[in-house]
Amino acid sequence: MWWKYLCFGDFIFRIAAKGFLLNRNKFLSGQSNY
User: Taking the mean position of all CA atoms in its chain, how far away is CA 10?
Assistant: First the structure.
């Protein structure tokens, strides 16, 4: 059942991308505060 791993990988990729964007926005807003 390789498609299960494919869907799981896509799920992990979306979470990682969302987390990266959130962290980047936090970092940028933190930079502007100083």
Answer: 11
